[in-house]
Design a protein that fits this description.
Distance between the termini: 13 Å
Membrane topology: Peripheral membrane protein
Structural class: alpha/beta
Radius of gyration: 22 Å
CATH class of the largest domain: Alpha Beta
Protein name: UDP-N-acetylglucosamine--N-acetylmuramyl-(pentapeptide) pyrophosphoryl-undecaprenol N-acetylglucosamine transferase
Number of helices: 14
Subcellular location: Cell membrane
Family: Belongs to the glycosyltransferase 28 family. MurG subfamily.
Helix content: 40-55%
Strand content: 5-15%
InterPro entries: GlcNAc_MurG, Glyco_trans_28_C, GlycoTrans_28_N
Order of helices and strands: EHEHEHEHEHEEHEHEHEHEHEHEHHH
Bound molecules: uridine-diphosphate-N-acetylglucosamine
Largest sheet: 7 strands, parallel
Number of domains: 2
CATH superfamily of the largest domain: Glycogen Phosphorylase B
CATH architecture of the largest domain: 3-Layer(aba) Sandwich
Strand order of the largest sheet: 3-2-1-4-5-6-7
Length: about 375
């Protein structure tokens, strides 16, 4: 099996592509993979580190408002398309898979025009522009959320597969995880983080929240501030006269490298609503309070959050409404209401798709010539 994978810009498009690459390597014989991205996207750094061959083409993203710069973008897209055509011709893939981001456009299009089976994977409830356009030419469309099916008029091509999570996420054990953090088993564990880079707004609300719950019996908190927000958070805590080291039930870290353990320890999560995070929460059946990042493209995180809220798996607080007080009020409501946590947890688990990678592999098999 020879496959080209493409997708990029941010980690959100690259990690699913890497998971799919691993899936192909285990599901098909003699798999040879080529990853096509741009030199400016994060993929140029991440993909070679994952030991996959990488080739770059020239493309850049369209500005969402009318601008002269977009003329240059169109020219580059044309150039990128010609480069992609050459790459596809010389690599001769059996399949081309795109996971979103503008680099997918020329690559999937070039493959489709050469009659090569193409699959796209969409991570968000509100599909990105590139994927919406590519759905017309792709042979298969795999989506993460049931809610995004409606945006693809080509219904018969669409399969709801979910988003593959890192394998270690489902392998961790609660008891061992609590031990790692030095936390107690009979307390409710709240995990708070704001996506991979942290979220300043969440950190600000957490100052008051930590003061409220500090040394309260029955609850313990793990809070990841994000690398860049760590010092600022500590300063704000100090300015408020809070002595963090006196709170035995609060752990503050810049980043959680062992997220699988933090999730295993958690009973309730407060976070942004990125697709990877939500896939992890639902695969583990974790209830959550979601605060969508309002500046994500086309506000897609709010659509992601809504998918969980509509099914009773989460509660949403809009970023603009987030304060220490609104967060504490929502937390108290969920914690105190009888059976609320277990009902949310059940609803979350129902949305989880532990077999996402297998289902994507089925989509690949379906589009290959018999
Ligand atoms: C800001 C933005 O536009 N983000 C987008 C980006 O998400 P991006 O990949 O940045 O964010 P996600 O929320 O999807 O993923 C964050 C990942 O970081 C991990 N983590 C986080 C904190 C920590 O301390 N340790 C740790 O390991 C989480 O477990 C998760 O796996 O692409 C996704 C898929 O297109 C979109 O849904 C997101 O909206």
């Amino acid at each position: 099996m020879r496959a080209i994978l493409t997708g990029g810009g941010t980690g959100g498009h690259i990690y699913p592509a890497l998971a799919i690459a691993r899936g192909l390597q285990t599901s098909f014989d003699n798999t040879e993979i080529l990853y096509v991205g741009t030199n400016r996207g994060l993929e140029a750094d991440i993909v070679p580190k994952a030991n996959l061959p990488f080739q770059a083409i020239t493309v850049s993203g369209l500005e969402r408002k009318l601008s002269l710069n977009n003329l240059k973008v169109f020219w580059q897209a044309w150039q990128g398309y010609r480069e992609a055509t050459q790459i596809v011709k010389s690599f001769r893939p059996d399949v081309v898979i795109g996971t979103g981001g503008y680099v997918c456009g020329p690559v999937v299009l070039a493959a489709a025009r050469q009659g090569i089976p193409t699959l796209i994977h969409e991570q968000n409830a509100l599909p990105g522009i590139t994927n919406r356009l590519l759905a017309r030419v792709a042979k298969g469309v795999a989506v993460t959320f049931e809610d995004s099916v409606q945006y693809f008029p080509q219904r018969d091509k669409v399969t709801v597969t979910g988003l593959p999570v890192r394998p270690e996420i489902t392998r961790s054990n609660r008891q061992a995880a609590l031990q790692t953090f030095g936390l107690e088993e009979e307390k409710l564990t709240l995990l708070v983080f704001g996506g991979s880079r942290g979220a300043r707004r969440i950190n600000q609300a957490m100052v008051e929240t930590i003061q409220y719950y500090g040394n309260q019996p029955g609850i313990q908190i793990i809070h990841a501030t994000g690398q860049s927000g760590y010092q600022e958070f500590l300063n704000e805590v100090k300015d408020r006269g809070i002595e963090l080291d006196k709170y035995v039930n609060i752990i503050v870290k810049p980043y959680l490298y062992n997220m699988q353990e933090a999730l295993a320890a958690a009973d309730l999560v407060v976070s942004r609503a990125g697709a990877a995070t939500l896939a992890e929460l639902t695969v583990l059946g974790l209830p959550s309070i979601l605060i969508p990042y309002p500046y994500a493209a086309e506000n897609h995180q709010e659509f992601n959050a809504k998918a969980l809220v509509d099914r009773g798996a989460a509660v949403m607080i809009k970023d603009a409404e987030l304060t220490g007080a609104t967060l504490i009020a929502q937390l108290q409501k969920i914690i105190l209401e009888e059976n609320r946590l277990s009902e949310m947890s059940l609803a979350s688990k129902k949305m989880g798709r532990p077999e996402a990678l297998d289902d994507i592999m089925e989509c690949v098999k379906k589009i290959l010539p018999r």
